């Protein structure tokens, strides 16, 4: 393996992990797609709660359940669950 190939392999391994910033962006994008009229303060709080519980990427968010969003306001929970059911 050449030094260039080794460097490319290392770069690919680094790229497989999300940074905190990338995770935040993915979760916020997911929230805005499911709850588009969400207030910014709620979105930030929900994003932090989701990330604290490990829901930090699109792949993991696809597995979210009703029990996982217990920290949300009731109307937001209902809207989110409804939209998630429509997607499946």
Descriptive tags:
88 residues, mainly alpha
Radius of gyration using CA atoms only: 17 Å
Give the integer mean of the pLDDT values: 89
Q: Calculate the terminal CA-CA distance, rounded to whole Å.
A: 45 Å
Tally of distinct domains:
1
| Proportion of residues in β-strands | under 5%
Q: How many helices in DSSP terms?
A: 5
The biggest beta sheet reads: none
Helical fraction equals: 55-70%
Classification by helices and strands: mainly alpha
**Approximate shape:** elongated
Low-confidence stretches: none
* Strand/helix succession: HHHHH
How many DSSP E strands? 0
Structure description:
With 88 residues, this protein is mainly α. It has one domain. It has helices at 3-15, 20-34, 40-52, 58-61, 74-87. Helix 2 (20-34) packs across helix 3. The chain is elongated and about 55 Å long. The N and C termini lie far apart (45 Å). The mean pLDDT is 89.
Short description:
This protein has 88 residues and is mainly alpha-helical.
Question: What is the topology?
Answer:
Blueprint: H1 3-15, H2 20-34, H3 40-52, H4 58-61, H5 74-87
